[in-house]
Amino acid sequence: MNTTLYLTALPPFDFHQAVTGHGWYQLGPFSYDADAAELAWPQRLSSGASVRVRLSGSTVYEPEPWVQAEVESMHALDADQRRELADAVAWMVNAERDLRPFYALAAGDPGYAKAIAQAQGRFLRSATLFEDFVKVICTTNTTWSQTKGMVRALIAGWGEQTPWEEALCFPTPAALAAASEPELRTRGRLGYRAPYVLELAQRVASGELDLEAFRQPGLPTSELRQRLLRIKGIGPYAAASLLTLLGHFDHLAVDSWTRKLVIPRYFPGRSDVSDAEIAAFYAGWRPYQQLAYWFYDWNSDA
DNA sequence: TTCCAGGGGTAGA
DNA sequence: TCTACCCATGGA
């Protein structure tokens, strides 16, 4: 059974940029066909039904941006299921994100010409907040290839079965909450992150921790950050990453990689630049510091 | 073999 | 708040 969902997006929008703005499209259960500009993944709906989604969308040149989801399911989707999927897709590609205020700040700076021309500025998000929280924990103190391996192992070991044999959904909180810590360490390749993921899964599965509360747009970034830091396994770097995914760009994530890029360009000849100095450097971009850092064309001569 | 990766928790000051 | 120390894994 196939269903097609059409969504509109706020211009300027470019589907390829919305998907590839950061590395998430390389993590399971996503797969991305760059030639066809098609993002695919299996997903379990709250009703328990499984679907396979193939997502495509318009380029920056189209004045009325759109996103199209080709959804495969065993039974016809009812109105609630279609709405749930449409909401999830809009969230994932940031269809409603208004980047114009950021572009207005960046206008005239050649280092952002490419970002503006290509409609960069969106960070792909996973279908659920739980999935994004786990993935962010999987990026701490490790290499990208190992992060991909951890996510792959979690899906292979605890992912939800679907009617399509080869397609497993990302594990639910309940599935990971039922896992043992040693198994998550070894089979899940999480290492010392295992207790953090286990505790997160258990708290979410039991209802003690409501991740949906983090989605409310009106929350001040500082309060959100304090709440994130109270979750075990989430420190300054992970909190900043999650703030970005949650659409709060007014807290700069200063990590080892930031320093590698920012110091040679803006603080040449210095080796001892504090986080506070780097944050102060970006203060003029408020509330878009993280976009200004991330979508700057570091290869430009600007 | 050693180092370290876009860190985080904990103890102790 | 700041610092030392430990934490697993795997690629260079």
Concise account of the structure shown:
By secondary structure, the chain is an alpha+beta fold.
Describe this structure as you would to a colleague:
The protein is α+β, with helices and mostly antiparallel strands. It folds into 3 domains: 96 residues, Alpha-D-Glucose-1,6-Bisphosphate, Chain A, domain 4; 62 residues, no CATH class; 117 residues, Endonuclease III, domain 1. 41% of the residues lie in helices and 11% in strands. It is built from 14 helices and 5 strands. Strands 1-5-4-3-2 form a 5-stranded antiparallel β-sheet. The longest helix is centred in the middle third of the chain and has 15 residues. It is globular, with a radius of gyration of 20 Å. The mean pLDDT is 95. The protein binds a DNA duplex (13 and 12 nucleotides) through helix 6, helix 11 and helix 12.
